[in-house]
Write a sequence for this structure.
């Protein structure tokens, strides 16, 4: 039966879910891809070659059992497909939407390498889990027994929530502390709705809360509660704060009005989508409407900023990146979507300074790619005499994120950090040199992918459970 359902990549062409027309999607913040219909999901899943060494699974940070849930989907066994999918992934409906599949699972699909077009893994993953929610298969956590041990988690982003989910399923008492008024971290306030509609995140937050996880929101560690108090209260503490400090640029005119940080711009936009009062948006400071926008950077955050600016009604949107298209760190799929929506990319262009206060333009220096740098990427070099001014009313800095100085902010000088300011933690467990203190996600890795944060959170939770079980066994003896 399975062999009849699968291996149809030779006769069935790759088909993504229908994408809304660019003119229509420029007008709102709704997701741009429609859902698969059931027949289409089965058809596309049946293209999987069920290869003996599934590179899609190998190149997924969570090692999701992709071939099995594709086969189950093709056979119409959706509930089983969901169970297999969620066994390794805490938030499959989120990964299906925002993972850069073109760089991970789909980019390593065997049939893609043979010229047949990759299986649409991300779209099927999204379909499976959205169906599970609609059918009521996603239930609140109900541990088989309650445990007395408790774990405090600082940060309600994907890493912290993934750890909370695993720990709570084992009956551990879990409290999540977060500085924001809603859980989700960058899933809530950093990623725009056209990639991840907010009701998807809020729905998952509610499921975790109904499962017995306690959320202490509007709670800034180091101000509202001390790190030491959290550590005293719990048997273990997981630091999952992410990295929110914007990487700065040194150039003439940096302090000018109209230069804004990407995280501030995106957070203001997402808050408006929730209906919050956002004075900085209403007064135009963090609003692109009617403005010439220049975004500096080439990662996914820069793509979020340019596409948000389009939807806010900017008169023009340009993105400056110092390397070429092939060497940009952001998703090529996102670049294509941005171009369709009217964004202009100025490749091999870097800011040299800023004109005016309020800003009226960016001094741009043209670049060429020279010899490879220490990472193996070609290093950009300035082309002398090729400078020009790019007119702008608002300039959004999307140059990446760095960790905050947690030892100073939390009065914990013994908290071990690297020379980059990230927390030193064991690779697989997240354990630090401080007894009972763990760290996961971007605060350990530096700015990375949501799927890696989920992996770290799950691995760390398993390590804590092993330690708690070992402690309980010693106590019993």
């Amino acid at each position: 039966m399975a062999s009849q359902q699968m291996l149809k990549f030779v006769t069935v062409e790759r088909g993504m879910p229908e994408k809304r027309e660019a003119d229509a999607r420029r007008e709102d913040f709704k997701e741009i891809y429609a859902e698969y219909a059931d027949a289409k999901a089965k058809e596309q899943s049946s293209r999987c070659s069920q290869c003996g060494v599934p590179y899609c699974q190998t190149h997924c940070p969570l090692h999701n059992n992709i071939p099995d849930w594709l086969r189950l989907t093709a056979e119409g066994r959706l509930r089983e497909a969901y169970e297999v999918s969620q066994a390794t992934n805490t938030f499959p409906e989120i990964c299906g939407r925002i993972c850069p599949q073109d760089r991970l699972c789909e980019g390593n699909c065997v049939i893609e390498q043979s010229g047949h077009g990759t299986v649409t893994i991300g779209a099927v993953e999204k379909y499976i889990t959205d169906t599970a929610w609609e059918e009521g298969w996603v239930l609140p956590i109900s541990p088989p027994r309650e445990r007395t041990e408790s774990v405090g988690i600082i940060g309600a982003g994907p890493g912290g929530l993934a750890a909370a989910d695993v720990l709570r399923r084992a009956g551990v008492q879990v409290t999540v502390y977060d500085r924001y008024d809603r859980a989700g971290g960058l899933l809530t306030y950093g990623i725009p709705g056209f990639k991840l509609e907010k009701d998807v995140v809020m729905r998952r937050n509610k499921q975790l809360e109904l499962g017995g996880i306690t959320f202490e929101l509007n709670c800034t560690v180091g101000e509202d509660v001390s790190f030491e108090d959290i550590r005293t209260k719990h048997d273990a503490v997981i630091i999952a704060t992410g990295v929110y400090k914007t990487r700065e640029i040194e150039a003439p005119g940096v302090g000018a009005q109209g230069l804004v940080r990407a995280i501030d711009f995106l957070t203001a936009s997402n808050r408006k989508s929730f209906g919050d009062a956002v004075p900085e948006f209403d007064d135009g400071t963090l609003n692109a409407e009617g403005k010439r926008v220049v975004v500096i950077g080439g990662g996914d955050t820069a793509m979020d900023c340019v596409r948000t600016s389009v939807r806010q009604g900017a008169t023009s949107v340009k993105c400056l990146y110092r390397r070429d298209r092939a060497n940009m760190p952001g998703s090529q799929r996102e670049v294509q979507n941005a171009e369709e929506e009217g964004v202009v990319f100025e490749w091999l262009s870097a800011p040299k300074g800023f004109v005016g206060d309020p800003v009226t333009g960016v001094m741009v220096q043209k670049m060429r790619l020279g010899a490879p740098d220490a990472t193996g990427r070609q290093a950009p070099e300035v082309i002398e005499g090729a400078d020009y001014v790019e007119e702008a009313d608002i300039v959004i800095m999307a140059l990446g994120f760095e960790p905050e100085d947690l030892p100073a902010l939390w009065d914990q000088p013994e908290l071990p950090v690297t020379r980059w300011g990230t927390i030193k933690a064991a690779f697989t467990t997240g354990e630090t040199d401080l007894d009972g203190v763990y760290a996961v996600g971007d605060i350990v890795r530096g700015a990375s992918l949501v799927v890696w944060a989920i992996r770290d959170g799950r691995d760390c939770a398993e390590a804590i459970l092993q330690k708690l079980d070992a402690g309980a066994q010693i106590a019993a003896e």
Remarks:
- Residues 450-476 form the longest helix (27 residues).
